[in-house]
Amino acid sequence: MNQNADNLIDVSVVIPVYNEEDNLPALHRHLKEVLAETDYCCELIFVDDGSQDRSLQVLRDIREVSSAIDIRIVQLSRNFGQHPALNAGFSTARGSVIATIDADLQIDPGHIPAMVDKIHSGYDFVSGIRRGRGDSFLFRRLPSRALNLLIGAVIGKKLRDYNCPLNVMRAEIVQAMREYGEMQRFFKPLAVRLARRIAEVEVRHDRRMAGVSKYSFLNLVDLFFDFVTNFSKQFFQKVAIAGFGLFGINFLIETLYLILRFPLSIIPEPLDRLQATALIGFIFGVQLLIVGVLGDFVIRIYRKIDSKPLYIIKKVW
After folding, report:
1. Rounded to two decimals, what is the model's pTM?
2. How high is the mean pLDDT of the chain?
């Protein structure tokens, strides 16, 4: 690994950690081996998200004996969740390229160098696509796919796997995200929205070797509502557009019918079903338009008055 004289960092790898004491030594060893084979000057940023096991002590022990790669440990004051923990890591990252990966070893860190190379070839954001998943279809993969479709529809940019934790992006994307307040709670859709060129690569996803998953079905439901809350401005804007379109189409249908019915007498008999359908569509369109406008107005107020911190850093080593 190339250590620049002025200690410039090429790649910062941010890893949120919550009760992963058994996986951390193997993860560190694997990351060190993978990054040592590159010409990049790298740092590892482990964010302890209020772990209740020995994860923090294990990280400190690893940092004490590690000399081949720069390691930083960010300790949060309590458990804030995966995405706030990532944002805490971003706040201390020094690299021009930033990578994210979970600490559970379900995804091979060996994919990181190739994804970094894609950034240097002109992409702004590179996302993994998990293959070979061993998770439950009903309680993990199916809700994950539904959430993936929802995010793509709201953001307007489709990814095949919005929930993959392995991502690589330019530091400029992270800097731009800091201006978006609460929307940072769901960092990947925001990063994808800000990126101009996006690439996806397939990555191997295996079963856990140790520890337990932090995402249950209820966690995914909570993630869904978290996304709707933070990106509902775009959602309500789309509702308003749909309402306006429905209103306009049915208004034109009703107007055309009246012209053909009375001045021109082309339609001699009243078409009751057509009139009823157009009237219902007209009313429903007006309702959607009102809901969309009011929803957008409420979200604007919410963002102005909500100033809770995403995370609180207790200590950095």
Report:
1. 0.75
2. 85
